[in-house]
Design goal:
7 helices; globular; about 70% helix
């Protein structure tokens, strides 16, 4: 299992020219994999922290969320996949493994699918 992607690792990969969407999707796939084996509130807190830090597209668009291709995924105040994940992840930070991992894992999958959709939409807009 890969460890959670750190902000430093993500930034280094981005600065070396790796695709911002690829890095962001990798971040979420790692989150999803880590959920499968997490059981303590601290492990879920680490997952929450990993999910919360900004991704390369935040840097590219200088936090101008309205024009970012990920706006539909992570727009604050919306009931999108990112907001749902973060709200549920907070509960796991307090409860640990008394909650089934499958719920949080499924929410991570929704984020991944939404990111992949945004990536495909961005490709269409380029051509």
């Amino acid at each position: 299992m890969l460890s959670l992607l750190t902000y430093t690792e993500m930034s280094e990969r981005y600065e070396k020219g790796e695709n911002a969407f690829a890095i962001t999707i990798d971040k979420w796939k790692r989150i999803q994999e880590n959920i499968k084996t997490s059981y303590s509130p601290q492990q879920f807190h680490d997952i929450f922290e990993s999910a919360a830090f900004k991704v390369p597209l935040c840097m590219e668009y200088e936090d101008n969320c309205a024009i970012c291709p990920l706006n539909k995924v992570c727009h604050k105040g919306e009931d999108g996949p990112f907001d749902k994940f973060m709200r549920v992840a907070q509960a796991y930070c307090m409860a640990g493994d008394v909650l089934p991992n499958s719920v949080l894992e499924a929410l991570a999958e929704r984020v991944i699918l939404a990111l992949e959709f945004c990536r495909e939409e961005a490709k269409k807009n380029i051509h």
